[in-house]
Amino acid sequence: MTPVSDVPVRYQLIRKDTLSGARLGRVTTPNGAFDTPAFMPVGTQGTIKGLLPDHVAATGSQCILANTYHLMLRPGEKTVAALGDLHRFMAWPGPILTDSGGFQVFSLADINKVTDEMVVFKSHIDGAMVELTPKRSIHVQNDLGADIIMAFDECPPGDAPWEVQRRAVDRTLRWAEKCKVAHQRPTEQGLFGIVQGGVNEDLRGECAQKLIEMDFPGYAVGGLAVGEGFDAMKKVLGFVTPMLPENKPRYLMGVGFPRDIVTAVLTGIDMFDCTIPTRNGRNAYAFTAAGAIRIRNSRFTKDTGPIEEGCDCYACRTFTRGAIRHYFFAGEMLGPMLVSLHNIRFYQRLMADLRQSLADGTFTRFVENDPRCRLGPAAPAEDV
């Protein structure tokens, strides 16, 4: 990785919507740039599950995400570094972001103990007890070599009481300072701070302001899509996003459905990641502008059409719904692969259209009229 400046991650604001906080921009990293608003597919184990990197790139994806927690446990960050860092490991020459590992510690570990200094957790792989501190999280990410790395934070459940959120904010702020000190590659990797605070405006505001004073290259909003509900998420974003610096990228972590993304774009968020497109794809749930469909449904048995008319993805250009349905029932890997590929392309087409509408001044009309902007978590019909 070759340093490009003392500030490894830079944001260029190209155009701002006149009727909302939405903005068109571009983020530049040591391994390339990506256009915003941007959706980043998630590669939990160092791969976008079931998909070749060139297929992912063909969907329009410009930046992808890898998971620090899982890669730290297996194969280990030193192994990834020895194999040429994440860019070589994942065969992805473009921008990569890694999370801090904190969210998985809280959401996946069988046993964990959280103190002001660290989290001690039980590995889901072999049961070994592992200590993860802010310093350790950053050093792991330094070895993994992503372009954008995240500060170690505490992410409590959305319905956690104020006292728990207060403690999480205090830890998040202390850990953010420790992460900055521990960061060994500040001219090569951009470290983002994470705003916590649940649905409490006082805590969110305090956390955002103190992180801004620490002067990170970018800022994330964490602790949403963890059970607080759509309306609460919308309210939090409407309050906290405008507080974040206009000259730096803003990232909403782990969100979500198209409706959630569009809602966040309206407040000024630039970056998104979520497992929904690929996780749903592996379960035969395909996104279309008319709503999600379940390919396993018997009505698709002899359907000669594509997953979605008008989609230009490889799956829709090449396979019929009937064939893809057969692959799922036959236990063939190709079924989940094709629907995952389509879903990522569905998201990237939406993001590209959002960017185009911002560029040509039709953003508000686009959001009001395009049905994709209203797609939430409503489930498709069951098999019949």
TrEMBL record:
Pathway: tRNA modification; tRNA-queuosine biosynthesis
Quaternary organization: Homodimer. Within each dimer, one monomer is responsible for RNA recognition and catalysis, while the other monomer binds to the replacement base PreQ1.
Residues where substrate binds: D99, S100, G101, G102, F103, D153, Q196, G223
Source organism per UniProt: Humisphaera borealis
GO cellular component: cytosol
Residues binding Zn(2+): C311, C313, C316, H342
Transmembrane regions: none
Stated name of the protein: Queuine tRNA-ribosyltransferase
SUPFAM superfamilies: tRNA-guanine transglycosylase
Segments for region (RNA binding): 254-260, 278-282
GO terms of biological process kind: tRNA queuosine(34) biosynthetic process
Catalytic activity as recorded in UniProt: 7-aminomethyl-7-carbaguanine + guanosine(34) in tRNA = 7-aminomethyl-7-carbaguanosine(34) in tRNA + guanine
Gene Ontology molecular function terms on file: metal ion binding; tRNA-guanosine(34) queuine transglycosylase activity
UniProt entry keywords in alphabetical sequence: Glycosyltransferase, Metal-binding, Queuosine biosynthesis, Transferase, tRNA processing, Zinc
Gene: tgt
Annotated family: Belongs to the queuine tRNA-ribosyltransferase family.
One Pfam family, short name: TGT
EC code: 2.4.2.29
